[in-house]
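Researcher: Let's try something more involved. This one mixes different molecule types, so please make sure each is placed in the same coordinate frame as the others.
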Amino acid sequence: MIDYTVDQEGIATIAWNMADRSMNVLNEESIAAFAEKVRESIVDSGVKGVIITSAKNDFVGGADLTMLQKVRDPKQMFERSLAMHGLFREIEKSGKPFVAAINGTALGGGYEICLACHWRIAADNPKALIGLPEVQVGLLPGGGGTQRLPRMIGLRAALPILLEGKRFDPERAKQNGLVDQVVPAADLLKAAKSWALTEGPKNVVKPWDRKDFKLPGGAVLSPVGSQTFVAGNAMLRDKTLGNYPAPVAIMSCVYEGCLVDIDTALRIESRYFISLVTSPEAKNMIRSLFFSIGEANKLASRPKNVPQASYSKIGILGAGMMGAGIAYVSAEAGLDVVLLDTSREFAEKGKSYSQSLLDKKLGQKRISQAERDAVLARIVPTADFAALKGCDIVIEAVFENRQIKADVTKKAEAMLAPDKIFASNTSTLPITGLADASVRPENFIGLHFFSPVDKMPLVEIIRGKKTSDECLAKAMDYVKRIRKTPIVVNDSRGFYTSRVFGTYVSEGLAMLGEGVAPALIENAGRMAGMPVGPLALADEVSLELMHKVRKQTEADLGKAYKPGPSDGVLTTMVEKLNRIGKKAGKGFYDYPQGGKKRLWSGLGELFKPAVNQLSLEEVKKRLMYVQSVETARCMEEKVVVDPKDADVGSILGWGFSPSRGGTVSQIHTIGVEKFVAECDRLAQAYGARFNPPKLLRDMAAKHESFYAA
Amino acid sequence: MTDAFIYDAVRTPRGKGRSSGSLHEVTPMKLAVTALQAVRDRNNLDTSAVEDVVLGCVEPVGEQGADIARVAVIQAGYAETTAGVQINRFCASGLEACNMASAQVMSGQSQMAIGGGVESMSRVPMGSSGGAWAMDPQVAFHTYFVPQGISADLVATKYGYSRDDVDAYAVESQKRAANAWTKGLFNKSVVPVRDQNGLTILDRDEHLRPDTTMQSLGQLEPSFKMQGETFGFDSVAIQRYPEIERIKHVHHAGNSSGIVDGAAAVLIGNAEIGKKLGLKPRARIRSFASIGSEPTIMLTGPSFSAEKALKRAGMKPGDIDLYELNEAFAAVVLRFMEALNISHDKINVNGGAIAMGHPLGATGAMILGTLLDELERRNLSTGLATLCVGAGMGTATIIERV
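Model: All components are placed in one shared frame. Result:
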């Protein structure tokens, strides 16, 4: 677990080397083993200096989150946390120089070990990442990071690093003061030893253990400190809208901790750390952002008995916005792309989308000219179906019209080898119906990409009735290949993401129709953790499109169509007022040229604000619960089978509040029984769309939940 | 309960609160001493009758630290037995000091006491005393802290006061203050600040801009726009008031209270001590009240505190002949008038802090004196003085001439 050697000159080397893992992590066993070696080096009078490094490619990746997930007892956790601080303080006060020789990635607790050392040398390993990213899963650096970093580089420099969880390569880590020295990888241990022998003895007292210590750049109670905190507090609320306790706790650790001595400060940090570990927000973020997305990326739910499919050539039908985007991400991932449209000219236009994205990256020096050229060269625009020969997969992204889709399906399948798969990037039309046009519907599947494809990480994979396990496995392999995150759902109108996302928007429109103040609706959406308010989102989607889809659904379903709560508002906006959305420059908002969008002043007359407004909490509840109750229906109907897919899809697909963990985690956090009771009340007050499905009632009756923790 | 009477009220003139201001060379101690000595000398006061001196001060650090009230008592040459206490209720400190002095008298625990206040804003700038509210992340976050200027713009946004509305109020304030000075209406209360040679340093308020017009105010940029938009405070305010889409920034230096230096003192006692010392009571304290309200909008507290004080006195807003409401920001007064349905000709009739300035800890005692002077001049009976206060408070005092 921990290798330990002492050389002839009295330099001890403590090297992390966890056998059963690809990455060293801090857990109970590894911490205990590390502590033992640290103490051994301190008590051994023959040891003059100590190098802490790793025998693996990376240094230490951070704390084992499964360990943190299990935490129940705050007292036990507090004691453990203090023990960790105690160990790091032993290093600092040992009187012997400790040098961190950072050979690779050192994140979170891994980097905090380095902070406890007297000197930090990083190898010039460009793949190494150094930083304190805990905030991204709702935590804070609980190994002294909130105290040592500001004491080392100052409040102003440390806060953004802690609050954003930024990771740096070694060179930038040096520029930002996170490491003291960067050396060629081959010289790392030599440099560490040389520092320990020559500079080390002069630097065995940490600055904050000296009587005359002053916080670099200005104290908390100084003009610099007051600017930093007074404005910083407000900017933090502006950014987090009260949804994320972690950054607030980090601000507090720095504020309160830097007013006192380091030992007191570390106790303060521990208390905040534990409050976060036990918070629902951290539990949700760890569960969904770390574990569920991680599992999805590893294709945990992929049918096991299908051999991995390899991809080298892909065909894309339709070079519009979506097709062009899919072409770009595929070419970026190293695939040859045949981009087909009705004319070569249209296909070329689709390719030029990639060119503009690549040129932008080139301009930002994120890629080289050669890389740009190579990616671009992989995309071949054409109007000839014969060019699809040899493709491993063909994805159609043509107009949402059954006839056109059927036509291209037939033409493409004629060129496709029998074991290769055909995917439709539809967002609205049921896959099973589209597969009717296919001669091999078992190889037909839905791949729902999100716009803009290059930015949105999710692909919703839709199984038709006849889609085979093999086809599903191959589709998942493709999604992994282009470095996107897949979720798997079964066929239904709107699948999972569009269906549930739509309830958020339509609940907002419904409230507008009821006389809820438009700003309250919009602010409540954002304050509930959604990226955009429902009215702004409707404008972006286009009211006209929503109205069209609604009318199409009504036509498709006939008498079975149940009017939605937002139908009236949509009809008024589109048919009466011709305010059709953002593209037209007018919807619920006005879009002044060069200015910020503003709620249209006519909304107040059209939808008279009620004298008694709903409370903020009630508006938030309606916007958020409606999504979870619809998700529960999707689960009952087996549209979604795995709750993790529902959570991942909601966060990555439409930006559902990460601190709520996704649509299912939200129910889990509230508690199924309480959620059901609250939905019953909402259904009474606002309509049957809040009625909890039988699945939830049964779970509530049996006191079941979706997740163990 | 014993009645408390006001026997006298004095104030220094208000000097511009910056290094070019006339009172910048004067220590806050000297300002407080000036007011205390004036009360003593005008009334031939046997200071051993004064049992306590309560002085408001909002930045009680540095020169204004260490209980400036008690030290000013000694420095002014009062009897050694006169105690002194410095209090802080933010902008209402001066009025609160008078209320506390009154409370001592009314409860029978003091026969006579002085309430007042002092603030040298040019020497001990706003914010000098720090505090947890804005700084401590736990507190700032939990309480939705925004600076007062943002609150003032929030009041204007929520209650629909346009830039023209607030500017028009400010122009009128300047006119009234200029008129009052021209006619000598403050002569009764204002005592000059003199140097050790008896030379006058300042004998009138120097912050006034009588030539202010809508046009001249129109040139000024809103003061809190940048703070609100760049540093996130608008967003904080909106998260507390989510029915608002955006904050309209209408306040600026010309329609907000001026930063100035000054001090004031009000002599308060029971009937018995007045008789004994041969003093004539000028007004009776009818009631007073402080109250807290929502701290982010912060500045709508005056109407609540006024209502509370009125209720305690068994009165209605219409029973009050004249009002003084500190002009912290124009929107504060506009909201107060709307909330209590008070016409502009009954409130701040001689202008206010927009024209003459707001020496934080002293203002409350100053406007109480201004109110009493004007009631006497017009031969009216009842008056109510009130101020908006940081963190959502309000303080009000009702007086009645005797």
